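ENTRY TYPE: protein
CONTENTS: sequence, structure tokens:
***
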Amino acid sequence: MDQISRPTPSAPVVRLMVLETDKPHPDTYSQRGSFGQIVHEHFTKAGIAHHPPLGVETDQVFVVTEHGGRIPTVQDFDRFDGLLITGSVYDAHGNNEWILQLLDLLRVLWMQRPDFHFLGVCFGHQLLARLLGGTVGPAPSQDWELGHCRIDLTHVGQRLFRTREDHVHLHQMHQDQVVSPPTAASAGSEMLAPNTEIACWGRSEHTPIQGLYIQNRLFTTQAHLAFDEDMVKRQIQIRVDGGGIQDLEHADRAAETAHLEHDGVEVAKAILRLFVYDDDGMGFERV
């Protein structure tokens, strides 16, 4: 079901298809809805802060076919400006049938829609890196990056987020990461022109590739934008209960940071600038 938020009747509207690759904790679902609905709520806040204000229209499709989802068709994206792939408990380097089908769909969309924007969070970040020829796998340390974490910004990141600070804080929930970033060469000439820059916008001690950026085309983030305190604690517990996180002291320390403020809205604002330039008067050039 479409969700539409417009600050004013005349506001420009960004239309996003959210590809849900997981389901939230039942308590989160009862309070905030599916991950697609949470994304909609979060980007609505960012759209209101845009100059000029933006409306946000989203639809969502649950794509995990082994649990009742479906892979959309290319035609399903005709009226959308971009897509966002959510986080997931699945491995983006895995070869589940639905993951391979999703990669095929993304490849066709990338080649047929040069105007289309590709966004990814956590699993989505890793899957889009894989699409473009990057390597995804477990962190060399084999441990998890959890909870409220500092991300050091590259120059590109500072320009994207329009900040002169050298870092942001976001919530993390992953063991896998982009081990080798994609390049124009790894993507292939049918996907990217040879001189295309795929920039990294941030890094941490655990994860050297915290996000990828291609001008007017792609924005990914390993960290989560829209997690609140309850979501952080619940998602950690899901992974503890499932056996993914075995260092319980690490999990407890991360859960204790769940209440800390983070920069998720600033990241969402940067993503919306892919679609509509934000004339906020801060003097930052376009990236």
About this structure: The chain has a mean pLDDT of 94.
